[in-house]
Design brief:
With about 550 residues, this protein is of the alpha/beta class. About 60% of the residues lie in helices and about 15% in strands. Keywords: Kinase, Membrane, Phosphoprotein, Transferase, Transmembrane, Transmembrane helix, Two-component regulatory system.
């Protein structure tokens, strides 16, 4: 519009054909770029040709501007060409060919315009041509420097991408390693917990106390192992939370009751306020909420030498509906400085060697607690000052829930099974096979063991079993493939199969069900949980 308005003046009539030529060249360039987007290899040269044509058309304006004889016209032509060269310099992005195609016409006009439009004897023209030559030199140097910078930047990006891929691969390897270590550690841990439980039930006096000590140590080991697994799942984005109805006051009171003895041993007061205003039932993940509370109370009691630990509960309505629960755990410990607060939720960080040496632990509890809080839609924060204790604040959204149906009571494991059902135990670890066999035989079951999937299939082709306990992760033929083959044909095509596995994430359970398994027992298993599963599957078998 500006060029058309100026072109209406007789002295600047050349603006109208110049505008038309530029618009035509830009249209051809747009068509070439559109085709290049569909077929990059076949349209490189046409795109460069369109760029060259546009540069020729655009730079031509400098010649008639110089011929006007006006000082402003000559200056405008020179500025137009200089600006076009700078644009070509940036647009080439380090490509010599692209720079040559787009900058050469403008540099050519820079020399040609004053020669065609002025007196050749004019000293000013000679000075301008010398300056133009220097500009070509400087432009070439600038292009060389920018090209080196762009190439270095591309190499840095490529190196960063390689490092990112290596980091992703390292994370995947770490997750696989954690999963493998978990599987291997759960094997002896199952035996420790099951054996300690059996000893505690059958012994008395000092022997019972020792058995309970072993069981407590096993539970502690399982908690540390679960922390490692949870962190690995969170980092891999595979951690999920559930939403079920539960009684929050009961959960909090049970958690406090668990820690009350340890607080009393240290001479600490353990207080809970605000619980009376809690709704009786809410929806959420009680397991993960209990895990966060356990971590907060454990830390508060561990780092408080004297005084008290308080849990304060408050609630506020949410605009989206439901409530926002705020649970604050406050202690009278030594407190934290600004630097410690900044590192507080960093995994594996225990605020110094003295902390790890004095109090132990893995440094994972608070990092996992914050991640779990955010997965549940809330958050976990901390405020503190040195010498004034610490205050951890958990915020959590909650919808009103309903009282779930009361589950049917289970018989005690000591009652056993009177009709001696036949059970096949499939596990590649001898310790697991021996542990399960001892527990199942104590239930009154007739137990057969298999060390791998192939042996299990052979035994299943000869004997009809009432239930099969199947390890999932086995070398060679794993538990999933073994179950699929069992379901295909044979005497045990309809026999209930129970997965005995440490991988109990939602995706893992879905995979087990898809393979044909009816239920699962988590490693390291608890005797009562194993017995409950056997009651379900063997009861279904008898009904069938």
């Amino acid at each position: 519009m500006v060029c058309a308005a100026v072109g209406l003046q007789p002295r600047f009539s050349f603006m109208l054909p110049w505008t038309l030529a530029c618009l035509t060249a830009q249209g051809l360039q747009a068509l070439a770029l559109h085709a290049f987007g569909r077929n990059p290899r076949g349209w490189v040269l046409p795109c460069l040709g369109a760029d060259f044509l546009l540069a020729v058309a655009f730079g031509w304006l400098a010649v008639p501007l110089w011929r006007t004889g006006l000082p402003a016209g000559a200056a405008g032509g020179a500025l137009l060409l200089a600006g076009s060269v700078m644009t070509a310099l940036m647009g080439a992005k380090g490509s010599r060919l692209a720079f040559a195609v787009t900058a050469t016409p403008h540099l050519g006009y820079l020399f040609a315009a004053p020669i065609l439009a002025a007196n050749h004897e004019d000293v000013g023209v000679k000075a301008f041509l010398i300056g133009s030559g220097l500009m070509v030199l400087v432009t070439s140097l600038v292009f060389g420097w920018s090209r080196q910078t762009l190439l270095a930047e591309r190499e840095a990006r490529a190196a960063a991408e390689i490092r990112r891929e290596q980091a992703v691969a390292a994370d995947a390897a770490k997750s696989a390693f954690v999963a493998m270590v978990s599987h291997e550690l759960r094997t002896p841990l199952s035996a420790i917990l099951a054996g300690a439980g059996e000893l505690a039930r059958g012994a008395g006096g000092p022997a019972k106390a020792k058995a309970e000590l072993i069981a407590d140590a096993g539970v502690m080991m399982r908690a540390l192992l679960n922390d490692l697994l949870d962190l690995s799942k969170i980092e891999a984005g595979r951690m999920t939370v559930e939403s079920i109805d539960f009684a929050p006051r009961t959960l909090i009171c049970d958690t406090l009751r668990f820690w009350r003895a340890e607080a009393r041993d240290k001479g600490l007061a353990l207080r809970f306020t605000g619980g009376r205003r809690l709704p009786r039932w809410i929806k959420g993940d009680p397991v993960r909420l209990r895990q966060v509370l356990n971590n907060l109370l454990s830390n508060a009691i561990k780092f408080t030498p004297e005084g008290r630990v308080c849990i304060e509960l408050s609630m506020a309505p949410r605009v989206e509906g439901g409530l926002m629960l705020t649970l604050a755990v406050t202690d009278t410990g030594p407190g934290l400085g600004p630097e410690q607060l900044a590192r507080l939720f960093t995994a594996y960080d225990q605020l110094g060697a003295d902390t790890a040496r004095t109090f132990g632990g893995t440094g994972l509890g608070l990092a996992i607690s914050r991640d779990l809080s955010r997965l549940m839609g809330g958050d976990l924060s901390a405020v503190s000052a040195e010498g004034r204790g610490a205050r951890f604040v958990l915020t959590l959204p909650a919808l009103e829930g309903e009282e779930p149906p009361t589950p049917e009571p289970l018989d005690a494991p000591a009652d056993g099974f009177s009709d001696a059902p036949a059970v096949l135990v499939v596990d590649d670890h001898e310790i697991n096979r021996r542990t399960l066999a001892q527990v199942l035989e104590a239930f009154g079951l007739d137990v057969t063991v298999a060390a791998d999937g192939e042996t299990a299939l052979l035994l299943a082709s000869q004997t009809r079993f009432d239930a099969i306990l199947m390890d999932v992760n086995m070398p060679g033929l794993d538990g999933l493939d073994t179950t699929r083959r069992l379901r295909a044909e044979g005497l045990n095509r309809l026999t209930p199969v129970v997965a005995v596995t440490g991988a109990v994430a939602e995706g893992d359970i879905v995979a087990c069900q898809a393979a044909g398994m009816q239920d699962f027992v988590e490693k390291p298993f608890e005797v009562t949980a194993l017995y409950a599963v056997l009651l379900r599957v063997l009861g279904d078998e008898e009904a069938a």
